[in-house]
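Subgroup meeting minutes
Present: P.N., E.W., G.H.
Scribe: E.W.

1. P.N. recapped why we're keeping a running log of single-chain structure predictions: easier to compare across weeks, and new members can see raw inputs and outputs side by side.
2. G.H. added today's entry (445 aa).
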Amino acid sequence: MHRLLLFILVVALFALPGAARAADMEDLSLEKAINRALEKNFQVKVLRQQERSAGINNSWGAAGRYPTVNLGVDLDHVYADAPASSGDGRLTTTANSVSPYVTLRWTLFNGFGVSITKRKLALLEQVSRGNTALTVENAIQAVILAYYNALLQQEQLQIAREVRALSKDRFDYVKMKKELGSAGTYDELQAKIAYLDDMARCQSQLLNLNTALRSLNQVMGEAGDKSYRLTGTFTHEPRTYSFEELLKKMEASNRTLRNQLLNTALKENEVRLSRSAAAPTVSLNSGAGSGFSATRIGSAPRVDSSSYNYYVGFTLNLTLSDGGRVRRAIANARINRRIAELQVDELRLSLKNSLINLLERYNIRRQLLEVAEEKMASARLSLDISGDKFRSGAINSFNYRDAQLLYLNAAFEKLAAIYDIMDTHTELARLTGGIVADREKESEK
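Output recorded in log:
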């Protein structure tokens, strides 16, 4: 008896710091957890910066549509000192000139290479956005699973505490019966052991909850010792899915497939760009300049002069032979395009098979959840009846303990079934591109 009191006292002392921390806990919803994770995810931050860079590069100027204009000025100073052509002495000559100029070079036609390059830059920006979206999807899925795992452990802790409370009542009841002489030491010891087992189970489940919260902190980018009061509900309303509808959504919105299609479009663009290299190039070259100079020879008066000039020229360039370089580039670009197309076909087949497996798993887990709910209801009713029979003496403490364990296992099975079906539902949403869309809908509410 003294050992039991000592054990309860130790548990209470360890629980006091946790109770003090509970007052400082902040409420954490799933939406808040997702937003916090996306704000602090370093990979998402890096990809968003790369997306910004791709957006800056996606311009007609980078594609080469606009002319190149240069503005400059030439400054010259000449000083010469030479013997005079007649007589003694030396003849000095000084000359200073300033010649500003402007030149323009503009590619007027290069086989539509400018438009093709602009298309490539636009595709690269879309690819960058697609990589960011894929990372965001993975981050959201990780947060959802970590959040609901913490809720699972929290619900299991509540069930364990409920069973512990029943064991405490049973232990107190047996002690009272022993004091009245209607129960023996053996019955008291069995009730005590069961109560201690349930206390240990609660402590172990509390450890599981703390571990789950630390995992949630990790995916959110928070410190591991930070605690929260989870405001989400651990429930799931089973849905009936149509394979055809899911397949259409996957074909239209799966982020991995869309990124691969963008890669195929890039390979097709490379084929067009390689072809444009064989086309003639027409360029415009133009410029204008002026010159101002001042020259003095010996003691003669300074002579000033000025000049102006401009020019306009067109250049036509057509490569007649380059050792087959362009031809090989076109052939290789076509091969790369075909490889990308085959990869799309392979990915579509893989995703379709994954969708079939996931939908089958979801439907089976939905049935398992129905069974677990019915089993849980039966175990709850059996526990209530067993409690009444135990107090009336119709069954012994062993039968009552069996009912408690049956209820505990049934409750844990139901919670695990809920988590399993939520896990499959989340994976289905990610596979069909619905994770980000579902989050946007929740934000609008």
